[in-house]
Design brief:
heterodimer, A: mainly alpha, MetI-like fold, 13 helices, globular, B: 281 residues, mainly alpha, 2 domains, two-stranded antiparallel ribbon
């Protein structure tokens, strides 16, 4: 049947690829064009917009802000999710459905609603939360919970944890040693995969950053939105950078997720 | 027994950071909104919901629901057709490359995407210029800054997401079934109506509900592209959070709770169909 039907397949795939690539290619060309609003092809090419936008100190500052916020969110997410997923999977099967539920709820929490709830709850409490990066990171950890939990739990379920634990115990390892030296290395794929997903989601996030801390800590997406309203050329360079960062992380995720795992022993878990 | 009970108590302590964090930043904020939305000056009331339904808010809900419905249907239908083309493509390289493309683009959104669409379909955008050379003038009838424009931009992430969700079901659709149907004298239409679509239905419905929620809650793309020109629920809530509108906390909370119900309903439906999909596979 592959020989008979190339007629409809080519335009469908061609249309899809065009729809997905033209906006990105147009953004790239626009960021390099001297002028491109009256001719079909850019009138000339220049690196001026890139040079101008990258030479600003705010550019490096916002890029670094986003990097740090994303990196800290990943670390906090790992610190709370990995031990919890491990314990629920191996020791507390009763807790597992609850963890599943808590890790799905964020999918149904629009950014604006989560921001509103956090402000309502914490604006009157004397805690160093509202208007600080702390609350932003806390919100990011929640938003990214589904990604981290799924990635870690799927890997845990694919590893024979009972066998590993029993083997380690018979060699005299304590619970913390087992977790740190046996379990974590065995679920490294899930940990890396989850971390990349969280990093990429946080790095590009705009809504919570905008509503929770506004201009006090400018992240890269906020900087980009400011530019879309003032200077389209430089905004296009920033937009292209966001695309490239997102692509690189997505491809890394695909690569880690599809990397062949060690042969697994089938079997149920306790 | 005693030792294992102590162990399990220790295990619960290990779970505590996760539970405390989730309670503090996920459960309590939602409960706060729920409580405040049904609290009036004289105790429990549903009055806040009534007051929330001003003409502007009704328009916001109607716009948001239409946008979510249109992009969820469009995304699922186009996505399934493209996914079928990918799944039945004879070249493995093409299959891998196109699936990777869907993977990469499904999470795009927000400001960069909105901006890319201004450059592509804005009044002096590349495709706008290209079409006007061909004698098709998009403007002034079409505007990228409108709800239609927003719908096109949303399809950019909705379609790839649908492709990823429907692909496993499509790969489970065995070519032999189609051949068997043909041998028994079924036409292509009959094959799809009786065999193909019923098998794909759970996956397509799961995709529809996830896409619906995805579009209903989206704010960054809408705000970058249209500012507050297009009246949507997330735009209204954000305006209330920023205090752009005279602050009436209970009103904002009622709106937020209503949109939580829409989102929760969609995700429950998604979970239901996703489970059925796994069972039939």
């Amino acid at each position: 049947m592959s020989a008979g039907l190339p007629t409809w397949r080519a335009p469908v795939i061609g249309g899809f690829v065009a729809f997905m690539t033209v906006p990105v290619v147009a953004t790239a060309l626009f960021s390099l064009a001297t002028r491109w609003d009256r001719t079909l092809w850019p009138e000339g090419f220049t690196l001026a917009w890139w040079a101008r936008v990258t030479s600003r100190s705010a550019f490096t500052d916002t890029l670094l802000n986003s990097f740090w916020v994303a990196a800290i969110s990943v670390l906090v997410s790992l610190a709370i999710v990995v031990p919890a997923a491990y314990l629920a999977h191996t020791r507390l099967p009763r807790a597992k459905p609850w963890l599943e539920l808590f890790s799905i709820v964020p999918f149904s929490l629009p950014g604006v609603v989560l921001a509103l709830g956090l402000i309502r709850l914490y604006s009157k409490l004397p805690l160093p939360l509202v208007n600080t990066p702390n609350i932003l990171i806390a919100a990011y950890v929640i938003v990214a919970l589904p990604f981290m939990y799924r990635a870690v739990m799927t890997t845990l379920e694919s590893v024979d944890t009972r066998l590993l634990i029993e083997a380690a115990q018979s060699l005299g390892a304590g619970p913390l040693q087992i977790f740190g030296w046996v379990i974590v290395p065995n679920i490294a794929v899930g940990i890396v995969n989850g971390s990349l997903l969280v990093f990429s989601a946080v790095f590009a996030e705009f809504v919570l950053a905008n509503l929770l801390i506004g201009t006090r800590l400018k992240t890269f997406p906020i900087y980009l939105v400011e530019f879309t309203r003032s200077d389209a050329r430089q905004a296009s360079a920033l937009a292209l950078m966001s695309f490239i960062i997102a692509w690189v992380i997505s491809l890394a995720i695909l690569w880690t997720a599809t990397k062949p795992r060690k042969p697994q022993k089938g079997g149920s878990h306790g | 027994m005693a030792a294992s009970a102590t162990h399990s108590r220790l295990a619960w302590i290990g779970l505590a950071p996760f539970l405390i964090f989730v309670a503090a930043f996920e459960i309590l904020p939602v409960l706060t909104l729920l409580r405040s939305s049904v609290t009036g000056e004289h105790g429990l009331t549903l009055g806040n919901f009534g007051r929330a339904m001003t003409p502007a808010m009704l328009t916001a809900f109607s716009n948001s629901l239409q946008l979510a419905l249109a992009t969820a249907i469009g995304g699922t239908v186009f996505g399934t057709i493209v996914a079928y083309a990918i799944a039945t493509s004879s070249s493995t390289t093409a299959r891998h490359a196109l699936t990777a493309l869907a993977n990469v683009t499904a999470n795009f959104g927000g400001a960069p995407l909105a901006f890319a669409f201004v450059i592509t379909l804005g009044s002096t955008g590349f495709v706008t210029l290209l079409l006007s050379y061909l004698g098709i003038h998009l403007y002034p009838d079409f505007r990228i800054y409108s709800i239609t424009g927003l719908g096109i931009a949303y399809l950019y992430f909705q379609m790839p997401l649908a492709i990823l969700l429907v692909m496993p079901a499509l790969l489970a659709l065995r070519p032999e079934w189609r051949e068997a149907a043909a041998i028994l004298g079924a036409t292509t239409v009959q094959y799809w109506m009786r065999v193909g679509l019923p098998i794909l239905a759970p996956a397509m419905l799961a995709s529809f509900f996830l896409l619906f929620a995805n579009a209903f809650g989206a704010y960054a793309t809408a705000w970058t592209l249209t500012g507050s020109n297009v009246n949507l629920v997330p735009v209204q809530i954000a305006a209330l959070v920023r205090g752009e509108v005279i602050l009436d906390p209970a009103l904002a909370d009622a709106l937020a709770v209503l949109s939580l119900f829409v989102m929760g309903g969609c995700l429950a439906a998604y979970q239901h169909f996703a489970r059925r999909m796994r069972r039939t596979k």
